Amino acid sequence: MATPVSAPADSVDVALVQVASPDSESRDERIARVEALLLANPGADVYVLPELWSAGYFSFDAYDALAESLDGPTVAMGRRVAAALDAWIHLGSIVERDPSGRLHNTAVLIAPSGLVAQTYRKIHVFGYQSLESELLTPGETLSVVSSPLGATGSTTCYDLRFPGLWQELSDRGAEAVVVPAAWPAARREHWRLLTQARAVEHQLWVVAVNACGVQRGVELGGSSRIVDPSGRVLAECGADEEVLRCRIDVGLTAVVRAEFPVLGDRLDRSAYPGLSTASGEETA
Ligand SMILES: NC(=O)CCC(=O)C(=O)O
Predict the structure, then answer these.
(1) pLDDT, position 250
(2) Which position among 51, 68, 96, 175 bears the catalytic label?
(3) Which of 33, 36, 62, 211 lies at a C-alpha separation of 20 to 30 Å from 242?
């Protein structure tokens, strides 16, 4: 009889919940559909959803009407499901209306108790063929919290292009970064390149979940993925809706960093402005 192979103690079952936000579906219909989808896929430790999936990222004309507080219908669903599945739910992000009335693109991580463990307001709001930067107020703070993924940071979509933000998360001890996204198919290769680059640069897990399908004529890229701390892609979704499960060994971050200690060679930030220019002269 074969000896059963048990998963390592720090092995975590992650579910990439890649969903579409078709224009024909209302926000409330979508929340109900995604709730049923999550409940039909029990057993993972952590579930991750895309950016603004309930409102639909490209439904700019509906942001104001669909904006919600952290007590709103999307987060309420996430809290119910987290408790029902006894799992962590990274809810992707919502259009959040803050108490002063401003709107934000806010990522929300919910613990199995149903309590909100982390929020992150997207710092780099997107303005290329997008009204997000006109409609939403950028966030100003980062956070790293403890979750089954280890010390966990959250960034959202376009933030992938800004290594300084990732550097800050890495400096704060992040071992895994979750990236909900609504990244168009037109730039799918950038998505692939940047998710791997950020993992390699900071030797951490990247759990990146994109939207799929078509929204307001824009085709989303799917290809949600998990990249390990040495840049290997462990799992990647296709172009359509799917729940993809992948077991990851969160202890690998420490192993990779110990074996190839790049992060220890990083110079203090103050060292860089003083470096001489190519001509050997200091800039004014
Ligand atoms: N939702 C986004 O932030 C889209 C970002 C994107 O498409 C890109 O950086 O390219």
Answers:
(1) 97
(2) 51
(3) 62
